[in-house]
Amino acid sequence: MDKLMIFYDDRKNSCISCAEKFSQYENVECRRISEYQDQSLVYATGARVGLIFESENGKLPYEVSHIIWKIVADKNRNHMLLITGGSRELKAARAAVSDLGERGYHILNLYTRYVMEKNKITPEKAVEWILKDIETEKPKHMKERVKEKYQGMPKRELRKELRRELKEYREYQKKQIKIRKQNLS
């Protein structure tokens, strides 16, 4: 497997625990984002880049944006994003992919906490699964499942199914907000 350099948000416990799990594998180097706040350029050449962060109400944390603006990496490689939670994580994923796309970087592997939980992938299994996807350069697990599920479905049924999926996602978000409020109390 190619070398993977992961930058993680060291202010969030979920990001720290993910980074610890990734660092157990060889050819994976985990770096704290806070160490690079003073630097004008962040060099990550010769490796794929991974970003682990938590969404902040659909936006990227400033520290992650700073890394995206300052990173110098191989533009001919596919890179990875892992969003470990937060509110409106899909909107944050879109923002990160857009920002990296403007800089000329391509994201092939994008993972969110919601998708992992929906597919019953445990955090321990998730790291192996992500590294396997990165190694093969074909994140086919999800694509194949989705393709099989919706293939040959009439448009009307497909719309109903997509609405149901959206409703489930909204319910998931409400549940996460309740859990966060309980933890703060």
Automatic annotation (TrEMBL):
Taxonomy, superkingdom: Bacteria
Protein name as catalogued: Uncharacterized protein
Look up and give the organism this protein is from: Candidatus Blautia stercoripullorum
- Classification of source organism: Bacteria, Bacillati, Bacillota, Clostridia, Lachnospirales
